[in-house]
Amino acid sequence: LLTVTVFLSTLTPKFYFALTVTSSFISGLIFVFEWWHFRKYGTSFIEQVSVSHLRPLIGGAENSPPPPAAFSAGDNDTSRQNMPECKVWRNPLNLFRGAEYSRYMWVTGKEPLTYYDMNLSAQDHQNFFTCDTDALRPSDTVMQKAWRERNPQARIKAAYQALELNNDCATAYVLLAEEEATTIVDAEKYFKQALKAGEMIYRKSQNCHSQSPQHEAQLRRDTNVLVYVKRRLAMCARKLGRIREAVKMMRDLMKEFPLLSMLNIHENLLEALLELQAYADVQAVLAKYDDISLPKSAAICYTAALLKARAVSERFSPETASKRGLSTAEINAVEAIHRAVEFNPHVPKYLLEMKSLVLPPEHILKRGDSEAVAYAFFHLQHWKRIEGALNLLHCTWEGTFRMIPYPLEKGHLFYPYPSCTETADRELLPTFHEVSVYPQKELPFFIHFTAGLCSFSAMLALLTHQFPELMVILAKA
C-alpha cells in the first residue's frame, strides 16, 4: 500500500492526460467496431461472444430453440427475384362502407378510409363490374358512370337511376348494399336482391358467351358480380352469427369457381372455421393453401402458428422450458411463430395489445402494417380463446428479431423484407393511426455502454488537459 501511495504521488498531470486520451481512443475503437458489427449483422459482438463462449464456461446454458430449417426457402432464388415488392391487394375481409365504416365516422368524427384506399376500390369496381358491352344496356351505362363518381351520394343516386331503367340491375343493388345500407341486415337484403338478379343475368351470359369476344367479356363481368355477391352474403351471415351457413356458402363458392382463388375466399373460410372452433377443418384448409416457401398472407402463417401453439400453450411455462428445454411440439410451435413473425413482424404487437387497432382498410400490403391491422382486427379473439396462446407468443416472438437476417437485403425463411412498405402503409392507413415501421432493431446494451465509456473518458481527458493540478488531486483522492 505504501509503494502504491508513493507511485501515485510521483505521477504527473501528463500521465493522467495520456491515460485518459488512450482509454478514450481504445473505447472509441471498440464503439466503432460494435456499431459496424451491429449494422452488418444486427447483433452486438461483445454480447454474442459472451453468450456463445463465456456463458458455457460459467455453467450457463442456452435454451433458445435452434433456427427453424423446415421452412427454408433457399432454393427459391428465382421466386424471390420475381416476387413483387409492394403490390397492394384487396382485403378479403374488408368491411361494409355504409354499415361499418360510415358508422365509425359518425361516432368518432374520424375518416377511417384514406382517399388512396377508396380510389383503389373505385378502380376495382370498374374492373369487376363493367365491360365493353355496357353501352348495350342503359342501366349498365349509368352504373359505369356511378363507379367513377367520387361523391357517395352521387353514386347512390345513380344506382337508383339504374334501377328505374332496369329493376334487375345487380350492380346497382351491390352499390346500395355497400354504401346506403346502415346495418348488416339491410345490406343483406340488398345483396339477396342482387343475387337474384345476378344469377338470372349470369345464366343468360352463359348461353351466349361463345358468340363473340364481347359476350365473353360480358360473361366475365357477370361472373365477377355473382362471385362478389355470394361472398358478401356469406360475410353478412358470418357477421349476423350464422356461422355454419356462412361456411357452407364459402365452401360452395370455392367449389363452383375454383379458378378465382386469387380472391382469397379461403381466408374468409379460415376465419369462420376458427369461430366455430373447427380446428381440424382449419388444418385441412391450411394444408391446401399454405405454400411453405412463399405463403400467401399473414392469415395463413399466423393461423398455422396458432394451431401449433394450441397443442402446447395450455401447459407451457417459460421457467419450466428453460430448465428442461423445449419438447418437440414446443419447438414446432416456436418455429411456426418465428416463421409467422418473419413474414409479418407487425402482427404480434396488435395481438398482444401493445398497440391499438383501427378499422382495417379496404386494401392491404402483404407483410405490411395494413395487413397486420386487418389480420389482428378479426383474429385477436381466436388467439384469446385458446388458453396460453398469447402467453406463448409473448414469450417467443421477440426472439425472432435475433434470428431474422439483417440488414433488409437479406432473408432467412422468405424473400427479403420489402423496403417500401412504410410508404404504402401510410397511404392505406388513416392519418390518426401510428404506422408500424420495421425493421427497427433496438441498439444493444454494449453499444450504449461503449458510447458512454468513450464519451466519459474523452471528457476526463479534456478536463485533465484544461485543469491538470485539480484533476491530479481528484485522482489521488
UniProtKB/TrEMBL annotation:
It is found in: Membrane. Keywords: Membrane, Transmembrane, Transmembrane helix. The keyword Lyase does not apply. Pfam families: ST7 (PF04184). The chain crosses the membrane at residues 15-36, 445-464. Its main location: membrane. It comes from the Eukaryota. It is a multi-pass membrane protein. CDD domains: ST7. One of its GO terms (cellular component) is membrane. PANTHER family: SUPPRESSION OF TUMORIGENICITY 7, SUPPRESSOR OF TUMORIGENICITY 7 PROTEIN-LIKE. Belongs to the ST7 family. This is Suppressor of tumorigenicity 7 protein-like.
